[in-house]
Design goal:
It catalyses: ATP + H2O = ADP + phosphate + H(+); Couples ATP hydrolysis with the unwinding of duplex DNA by translocating in the 3'-5' direction. By secondary structure, the protein is an alpha/beta fold. It has twelve helices and nine strands. Strands 3-4-2-5-6-1-7 form a seven-stranded parallel β-sheet, sandwiched between helices. It is elongated. The structure holds adenosine-5'-triphosphate.
């Protein structure tokens, strides 16, 4: 009896020591994983730093290769452009940009608003095996893009604060295990800088060779010299450090030379091929009128201007400072000749 008690006592002691050891082993394994991760980051940083030194000692980053030549993916790209995107021909620089991305280069694109930047990464995203990650600053822009891609039959999703749990699970499975159909994943920059869980799934996706391209939309947001600096964009440099072999395309409509240099440095893409298209839009122009000091007269003038300039039932937009002003402009002019609809942040 006494023997049994002693054995039980010792058993409890051994079990408690084992539990203690297991905790220590888990802590050590976690430490080991963190160190491996840091080791990989440091090696990549060293590599990038050497490449960047070599690049600044040699040629500028502007394209020397002929990106409009023939490439093995030409016919597949033409087929996808026409049959998936419904676009009959490329606009200026689109083909060259797509070819350089398909060749595995990092690319910087400066192209006017509405110039067709999205196709430059969406088409390679469809052509390349795996998942393309797109970082974009605004939820509304992202929603718009995802809806547009879904309408074309391209499997695209967004992972943002508004994504429901089921879709989030689907996305994580696609990243981690390659399950389900996902070609293009949109995230906000906050996801990259704030979600360790997301970054770890992305790491697994990359490790399995399934991260095909990284696109940074509105890339000028990286630079404090730009007009729209977003602090979370500053952390996007981590993407090139973690995934040095994955091509990156950075796109913007406006970037001065200083902003361009800044974002090349911040995104760690010193050897990027740069494409600059004209930002001049001849169909857009300003005209300044002196306005009356009487509110009603101003509204009359707006209505007259619209009726005279656009007599054929065309559509246009009148911007006001407030919702109240929008109502003041709309109310008297919903006549047979003119029809105003109010838009104030949301449709009324
Ligand atoms: N080669 C093309 N031919 C005809 N239409 C095109 C072509 N490329 C793009 N488009 C269309 O032009 C429109 C604008 O394209 P997109 O939204 O990609 O512009 P963007 O450069 O991203 O503009 P923003 O800077 O405002 O986001 C879209 O409707 C797109 O389908």
């Amino acid at each position: 009896m006494e023997d049994e008690e002693n054995i039980e006592e010792e058993l409890l002691l051994v079990e408690s020591q084992l539990n203690g050891l297991q905790d220590k082993i888990k802590t050590l394994l976690d430490q080991q994983e963190e160190l491996y991760e840091r080791q990989a980051q440091l090696k990549a940083m060293l590599e990038i730093s050497k490449t960047s030194r070599d690049a600044s000692n040699s040629a500028p980053s502007v394209a020397l290769e002929d990106w409009s030549g023939k490439f093995s993916w030409d016919s597949q790209a033409d087929d996808t452009r026409f049959n998936v995107f419904g676009i009959s021909s490329y606009r200026s620089n689109q083909r060259e940009i797509i070819n350089s991305i398909m060749s595995g280069k990092d690319v910087l694109v400066i192209m006017a608003a509405g110039g067709g930047k999205s196709l430059c990464y969406q088409l390679p995203a469809v052509l390349r095996d795996g998942i393309t990650l797109v970082v974009s600053p605004l939820l509304s822009l992202i929603q718009d893009q995802v809806m547009g891609l879904a309408a074309l039959g391209i499997p695209a999703h967004m992972l943002t604060s508004t994504t429901n749990k089921e879709i989030e699970k689907f996305i994580y499975k696609a990243l981690e295990k390659g399950e389900g159909e996902l070609k293009i994943l949109y995230v906000t920059p906050e996801k990259i800088s704030k979600s360790k869980r997301f970054m770890s799934k992305l790491e697994k996706c990359h490790h399995a060779g399934r991260l095909s391209l990284v696109a940074i939309d509105e890339a000028h947001c990286c630079s404090q010299w730009g007009h729209d600096f977003r602090p979370d964009y500053k952390n996007l440099g981590i993407l090139k450090i973690q995934f040095p072999s994955v091509p990156m395309i950075a796109l913007t409509a406006t970037a001065t030379s200083k902003v361009q240099m800044d974002l090349i440095e911040m995104l760690h893409i010193p050897r990027s091929v740069k494409f600059v298209s004209t930002v001049n839009r001849p169909n857009l122009f300003y005209r300044v009128y002196e306005k009356s000091s009487v509110g009603k007269v101003v509204i009359d003038e707006i209505a007259n201007f619209i009726s005279e300039s656009y007599p054929n039932n065309e559509s246009g937009i009148v911007y006001c400072f407030s919702r109240k002003e929008c109502e003041q402009v709309c109310r008297p002019y919903n006549t047979e000749m003119l029809s105003f609809q109010l838009f104030a942040g949301h449709m009324i």
